[in-house]
Design goal:
Layout: E1 3-7, H1 13-20, E2 24-30, H2 33-42, E3 47-49, E4 65-68, H3 90-101, E5 105-111, H4 118-133, E6 137-144, E7 152-153, E8 155-162, H5 183-188, E9 208-213, E10 222-224, E11 237-238, E12 251-253, H6 254-259, H7 264-273, E13 287-289, H8 292-298, H9 311-320, H10 324-340
Parallel strand pairs: 1-2, 1-4, 2-3, 4-5, 7-11
Antiparallel strand pairs: 5-8, 6-8, 9-10, 12-13
Helix pairs in contact: 1-10
């Protein structure tokens, strides 16, 4: 059984995928107290609550694989992409631990900035050089969660390294052909919001934007105030970002979902395109926010996974996580090489 050290573990999404594939996670670390409480509740007490800067590398056990998703706000396309932002250095902290412990393999996850942020691409090349210098063969790619059965079109960047391999197969998994549930299928598997099993509702009002940002699709742009976009029930849901919650929480048309009505947002979008002026007011009452429990399912966590902290922290933990189903696909592909050795 390959052993794993998990860094920047959060609520444990990536760990769950590796555990399902037969790995043993022997050490984990995060500095978020609510995420650590969630991790302990569901996975184990081996998580250390501390900043990576305060951890003695010698105290981290030897292992076969190091995994982690170091925060990347310093490289955000939407942000300032400052090299001085301390969060910009966390990917190097991850690399330093890998170089010091020299596991047989590593998996590093980040948001999809490849080709979008010059600074991120510079960092990617710098990290690759460091890993290669340490003796690793490195491959990287953007993976879309819905290609691996996760009901969310979440794009994530992965850099994976192996100390050596003689297999010709890539480290990066390819879409497995697993049927991906639509948003409608996931939502209909829950009772209506507020009922037992789906109690954790979001009360942020839904109001129509007086200056809507129009896009070709009614499910893009910003037709509501805040960043909560309407859910296209016929497809896997869009990315649940770490900053969602409150008026950033996606919006569901309950009448379309339960009664089979035509999507209200499609009609409204068409009217705006035809020249109707938007009016600032509350949206129709049959529009509502996703609940916490529904978001847990869309991020591919087990339905009974217990999250600690206030709702804002729960949303952050969910949005920051690697969907376990995606992590499972990565860990199974990597296992072929580890078992071969």
């Amino acid at each position: 059984m390959p052993t794993v050290v998990s860094l920047f573990s959060g609520a444990g999404g990536m760990d769950l995928g590796f555990i399902k594939a037969g790995y043993e996670v022997i050490y984990a670390n995060d500095n978020d107290k609510h995420a650590c409480a969630t991790y302990r509740e569901n996975i184990g007490n081996h998580i250390v609550e501390a900043s990576i800067h305060d951890i003695d590398i010698d105290s981290i056990p030897d292992c076969d694989v190091i995994i982690g998703g170091p925060p990347c706000q310093g490289f955000s396309v939407a942000g300032k992409m400052s090299a001085e932002d301390e969060r910009s250095q966390l990917v190097y902290d991850f690399a330093d631990v890998v170089s010091a412990k020299m596991p047989r393999a590593f998996v590093m996850e980040n948001v999809d900035h490849l080709g979008k942020s010059p600074r991120f691409n510079h960092t990617r090349n710098s990290l690759r050089k460091q890993f290669v210098k340490s003796g690793y063969i490195v491959q990287d790619a953007i993976l879309i969660s819905s290609d691996f059965g996760v009901p969310q079109r979440r794009r994530r960047y992965f850099m994976i390294g192996l100390m050596r391999t003689e297999l010709e197969e890539p480290f990066i998994p390819t879409p497995n052909g697993k049927i991906t549930p639509t948003a409608r299928e996931i939502l209909l598997s829950f009772p209506p919001p507020g009922e037992q099993g789906n109690e954790r509702t979001i009360n942020a009002k839904i109001t129509l934007a007086v200056g809507p940002v129009m896009r070709k699709s009614p499910y893009a742009g910003m037709l509501f105030n805040g960043l909560g976009r309407p859910v296209n029930l016929a497809r896997p849901i869009q990315t649940l970002a770490a900053t969602f919650g409150g008026n950033k929480t996606p919006v569901v048309d309950e009448r379309e979902l339960r009664d089979g009505e035509d999507p209200w947002i499609v009609k409204y979008h068409s009217e705006l395109k035809d020249g109707k002026k938007p009016v600032y007011k509350e949206a129709p009452e049959f529009l509502r926010r996703l609940t916490v429990d529904e978001c847990i399912a869309f991020q591919d966590f087990p339905r009974d996974y217990i999250f600690h902290g206030p709702k804002s922290s729960m949303f952050r933990q969910i949005g920051n996580a690697v969907p376990p189903g995606l992590a499972f696909a990565i860990s199974m592909q990597l296992l072929k090489h580890l078992q071969y050795e």
